[in-house]
Design a protein that fits this description.
It is built from 9 helices and 23 strands. By secondary structure, it is α+β, with helices and mostly antiparallel strands. Strands 5-4-1-3-2-11-6-10-7 form a 9-stranded mixed sheet, with helices on both faces. Strands 13-14-15-17-16 form a 5-stranded mixed barrel. The protein binds adenosine-5'-triphosphate. Adenosine-5'-triphosphate binds next to α6. Keywords: ATP-binding, Cytoplasm, Ligase, Nucleotide-binding, tRNA processing.
């Protein structure tokens, strides 16, 4: 049996992963469980609390009717106790699905996962799919959580992992005391198998959240063993418990290759095209440029919080061939750049203004005439002027926003060859 849960917390209180951990610990007493999942869905969903994540717990045993009832009761009891039902924006949802139904409907669920990553779905649509695959759901208040709950159940590889360490209750809301140097050391020792631990450009610890939730820190990585080693390297406040989740963090599953003509708002794209207008700085410290392919053009933007990444964007020139990775903002329609792959750099030249006859300085006399040497007075045609290639201050390859500005789902460059 699969149990999906979402939309239980608010910015002020609780965390759906903490709730999942408590339910997991309770169910573990009687059942065999798979590793729980923490699945992020479309990051463009407006009413998300933080990172649009839902959770899924899978019971591996064959369940009797009585067991199923017990599982439902336990889940509901915990969701009621650990959801911030007083917050307007918290609308919990639980989805139950039997393992046989999951297997029978794998294709429908796979599709739903893609839709939940790429599109904005309605509550009615999620209900329809749950009924179609033979699942059950419980809605609290508006029950919007069932959209993400089904998304978490439906997910498929690629996966990474996150070890989430939780705080003792008496520490909730207080400052997190984590030794920065121990995080840097942990990062260095476990690279490249853990990611997004520390932002070296902005000197910022990334494993601790900023909200008053029960999470002390979260370490992301591509294998469980390294995560456990990393956990013991972090010094500071002692966690009360930890849980390892299978996740889609750092996988880029929210992006897919699209032609500019087909792009629509609130989705994730990878667009291959040529820079068609020089990047320019706009108000607020953002940098914007136009990208074109054979179907149209679209503005791409590196926002101020992407800090040093904007320097790379500023160095692009018309003619450069790139792939832009990012999500599409509605108004105005622009791609918010998460990462860029520079595939081909336009060549730029400087005219050699030395006279080929005497080495004197050449002076422009208009396109028709060409250049005239100031010293020997000889005329050199425009086409005959020697051109020297200027070395570009950019290299072919990937460039990404710093860790502080990275989305949960964005694949860091260090993982490009590690996760396919
Ligand atoms: P947390 O990560 O702390 O649990 P969150 O950022 O996941 O919080 P939620 O409070 O869960 O935010 O709110 C996100 C809401 O969006 C949930 O109700 C979820 O069901 C819903 N949702 C998820 N994916 C989609 C989608 N593709 N379209 C529409 N709604 C979605």
């Amino acid at each position: 049996m699969f149990i999906g849960i979402d939309d239980t917390d608010s910015r002020k209180k609780f965390c759906t992963t903490y709730l999942a951990t408590l339910i997991y610990e309770e169910l573990k007493k009687s059942y065999t469980l798979n590793i729980p999942k923490l699945i992020r869905l479309n990051p463009m969903v407006k009413y998300k609390t933080r990172g649009n994540g839902g959770v899924c717990i899978e019971i591996l045993d064959d369940l009797e009717k009585r067991d199923k009832e017990e599982v439902r009761e336990i889940t509901i009891k915990f969701v009621e106790k650990y959801s911030d039902l007083s917050s307007d924006q918290t609308n919990p949802g639980i989805v139950f699905l039997d393992r046989e139904k999951f297997k029978e409907n794998r294709e429908i669920l796979r599709n739903y996962y893609k839709e939940a990553l790429f599109n904005i779905l309605s509550l009615e649509y999620a209900e329809k799919v749950i009924k179609r695959v033979g699942g059950g759901f419980i809605k609290f208040k508006k029950g919007l959580g069932i959209i993400g709950a089904l998304g978490a159940i439906s997910s498929e590889p690629p996966y990474t992992y996150e070890l989430l360490a939780y705080r003792k209750k008496e520490n909730w809301g207080k400052r997190r005391e984590i030794d920065e140097r121990s995080v840097i050391e942990m990062d260095r020792k476990t690279f490249p198998y853990t990611f997004d631990n520390y932002d070296y450009e902005n000197e910022k610890v990334l494993i601790t959240p900023n909200t008053p939730c029960p999470v002390l820190f979260g370490i992301r990585g591509i294998n469980i063993k390294t995560l456990i080693d990393a956990y013991f390297m972090v010094k500071g406040e002692k966690p009360e418990r930890f849980m390892i989740f299978k996740t889609n963090h750092g996988t880029d599953v929210h992006l897919r290759v699209m032609k500019i003509r087909d792009i629509y708002p609130n989705t994730g794209v990878i667009v291959y095209g040529k820079v068609s207008e020089k990047p320019r700085d706009i108000e607020g410290g953002h940098v914007i440029f136009k990208l074109s392919d054979d179907t149209g053009n679209i503005d791409c933007i590196a926002y101020e919080p992407t800090k040093g990444f904007r320097e790379t964007i500023r160095k692009l020139i018309p003619g450069d061939f790139v792939a832009v990775y990012g999500t599409v903002r509605e108004e105005p329609l622009t791609i918010n750049i998460e990462k860029i792959k520079i595939l081909k750099l336009e060549k730029i030249y400087r005219l050699n203004k030395r006279c080929p006859h005497c080495g004197g300085t050449l002076k422009a006399k208009g396109k028709k005439v060409g250049y005239k040497c100031k010293r020997c007075k000889k005329v050199i045609k425009y086409e005959e002027i020697e051109k020297e290639e200027i070395k570009r201050d950019l290299k072919i390859g990937f460039y990404e926003v710093p860790g502080v500005a990275r989305r949960h789902l964005s694949k860091p460059i260090q993982l490009i060859d590690l996760i396919k």
